[in-house]
Batch of 4 targets.
Target 1
Amino acid sequence: MDGLSGAASVIAVVDISAKVASLCYQYSVEVEHAKDDIERLRRKVNDTKNVLEKLQQLEQNNPQLSTTRNVVDSLKECYKQLQGLKGHLEPGQGRKAMRRFGIRALKWPFTRKEVEKIVQDIESFQRTFSLALQADQTALVLRVDQKTDRLLLPIAEGASFDSHTEEHNARCLPNTRTELRKTIAEWANNKDG
């Protein structure tokens, strides 16, 4: 996964999390004990996949957002952890051989403590991705708010910024700037300078 762009990283993690969730479901159907642990792990992996799909959708619609560029290291770490999890959950050669003889032997490879640690790690990744998603959504909302503010500003026709429409028609309204005109006239009429 090294060297992949942020978007490709998101896609890879979404893909691997879907595979892990599918394997967890397989275990929950075939294993008698540890159903709660299996289901909790499957839910967390699915939740993380859903957040990443939203992240991917947001990045596709707004490529200028910085979310995936900021979480690439977390995406790589999450991918690595899910890849290891998938490796533990995939059926080995022994299980395939037993299936040929009609024996369904599937043993949950984790203890309750291991599942708790894995769930905590996945929740940590999920929080990181959710916060990045929230930051970009906030940036989008602020951009929309600024555009809305600009649209609501009143426009003074003929007095827009850098307007030169009246530059050759310098005029003062009656009874305005009288003090200034009086000071200038006194100065101009003063023979002492």
Target 2
Amino acid sequence: MAIRQMRIPIQGLEDAGKVIPLEEALRQQEGVIWARVNFAAQEVIVLYDPASFRLSRILQMVRSQGYEVALPQWPADSQALRTRLQALGIPVGAGLAGAALLVGLYLSLVTLAQGWGHALELLWEDRWLVGAIAAGFGIQVGLYVYLRRLRACPVNPHAATAMTAAGTGTSSLAMVGCCAHHVTDALPLLGLTAAATLLNQYRIPFMVVGIGMNGVGILWMGRALLRIRQRMGPRMDPRRSG
């Protein structure tokens, strides 16, 4: 069981005789392992189990005793967690942008052939295929950006770039194949009869290859990330160096 410590400043504690009752009330709260009131420093020191501890209950109980409380400083591990979550913002944003780009490619192709309204209808019909291709590509892009932002990344940047570039090409091809049966009627009118035949004939292989390449890229980058964690351990820092 992991044990954490927290200091909670309080105001209004003017009677030293009320220290013991306050300590007893604190120790009865769920998740509190031990509690002590420092009358001189006007603060409460709490040892707690983070699995069951609720800060809101402690604050409510202290206030019910007639004291004012200030929000405590979170432990260092929580600060590190917030920093890490903030650092994930750019990779997540890049992944969402990559997925949105592929969906935009689908909508653009169908809109050029049959109009915007029809494109939205067909997007809903093909939502599972489009979603699988776009999600896989988005995850791959997000992992790539995350790996590139790690300090002292032991991954070959050329290999990671090549893997992502391959995923970009196959995902784009898969998305074209996904909407091929919607645009093949219009392609002959544009003088692209051969392209229409090719897209219609190999639509399923295009999509399978695209989804498969995304899966390979995700597995490769996942293994690279695992190697980084094993090598760097607690020193791992997703923030941009320098």
Target 3
Amino acid sequence: MLFWIVAAIITFLVTAGVLYPLTRGGGTLALESDYDREIYKARMEEIDNDLSIDRISSEEANAAKAEEGRRLIASTQSGSSSKAIKVSGSNKWAVIGSIAFLPLFTIVIYLMSGTPDLPDQTLAARLSADPERQSITSLLERAEVQLVRNPNDGKGWAVVAPVYLRLGRIDDAINAYRNTLRLLGETPVRLSSLGEVLVISSQGVVTDEALDLFKRAADASPEDVKSRFFLALALGQNGEPVKAVVAWEKLLTKATDQAPWVPVAKANLKAQQGLLGIKPTPPSTTAELPGPSQSDIQAAGQMDATARTSMIEGMVANLAAKLDEDPTNEAGWRRLIRSYGVLGKPEEARQAIAKARLALPDNAEFQKHLNEAEKSVQNKDGATQ
């Protein structure tokens, strides 16, 4: 109803403004010469004003006034034949009736073909409409309106953050993820999500800030795939191919081929293996390395000490070569370090321990075993000196 009242008032004012000149007495339309005289007067006042503020000299003022006078005379002479046009009473009311009829005609047409009884849809009603029938953009706009009203709505920021990322609005996504962390606290998912958009923003480079976020996420949840993925990526970017290979292999052992990140992980693993000169092997080849067979043991028992030692050294060298191809085999490293101890080769044992540390840096239990093995080697080496 309010719309119709406002529309009626506007229509009345516009119509009255158009009709007012026609209803004035006399009904005589002004001649063109009358306008020329008004222009002449205005120009004279302008010239006098310029003269008073020393914008022009008195000679220039006189010349300008003379020029304006000549123009007025010429205009009057050219329009001397013009006559005032007098509008008759019947013609005047015909014009008034035509102008007044137009809005009435428009209203009648709308009432016949329009839907004047359709209720208004307020902004609140549009925002609360069925979300399934709205586009992503309209839903985002709705959420943004809410966040303007309540910028401390952490759940709201958590909702819009992935939408911004999907739409390619990376800066907005970073801001939304930061607000989510600030308002709702840290979780592995929130930490790794912010780290991800920071990597995207830096064209795929794992920045220091992003690396810190991924480490915190991995510490809170060692099984968080996203943080482990980017940590492996960071190792390769920071020039640590051995650690990168280990990280990628560990990540891929628990992955399914359907996971969308697997092709990228495999490509990075292959690239890092290429830097190390390692021939890529499928994860299934990381099984337990075989030990000596029963026939090997029997043959060793029939040999003299020198031949037996030579045979054992050959088997140890073979084991070391296999570990170079498959550095993630924990049992193989344990056997190799123990074999060097039996053979009395502390320097080779230390080298094997160092390689094993790099190969399995995230295996806390194995790292503890390596520390104990290193102490044992040092003790034996000290006792022999």
Target 4
Amino acid sequence: MQYALGTEKVVMLDTSYAPTVRPLTLAEDPQVQRPRKILLTMLGICLFAWLGVIMLIGMSIVLVFVFMGVLAGLALTSVAFVAINSIDLNSFTNSTVVTSFSNSTVVTSTALNSVDKAVIKGVMCFHFYKRHSHVGGTWYANRYPDCQVDIPSNLYSYSFEINPQCSHYYSRQSEIADYLEKCTDNYGIRSYIHFDTTVTRCDWLDERQL
């Protein structure tokens, strides 16, 4: 069928045209997919938010333990400081006597600490009495072959005078004796030691606190 419209010709087909129409699936329906995308987005945001909260809680717990550890360390340091400074150096008098009986060594850690603090305070009042002609006690008296200490060498020294120069894992008698001699000289107490002297009696004078 043909129609003439002005200078143009319109051709109309006789066959009928019926377009194909089908319903949209859920995956194609924008009314369904939009809320679904919004829901998934909100779930993702909530998940990341919860992960952030969990991380913050974990970091807070770690910081609390670190803080408690620091406080505990400061407390122990304070206790040690107070204990060290609670030693009354004024209790030393001009007749303080530290004796050494049998073969026990005069140069003990307690004695050296006391002498060191007393020297700082200007209290020079110590008298040591030694039966032998040298310091060292048992490490001077016992000089049999292979005489040695029974604990690791790095543990057998004073905390204030570490002895790193050890030739054996278990130090020999001669090394320990030399070490004690060195400690005696380093702390300047040799002049307060009376060698070759045996103490036979000590009397406490309560009225003089001696």
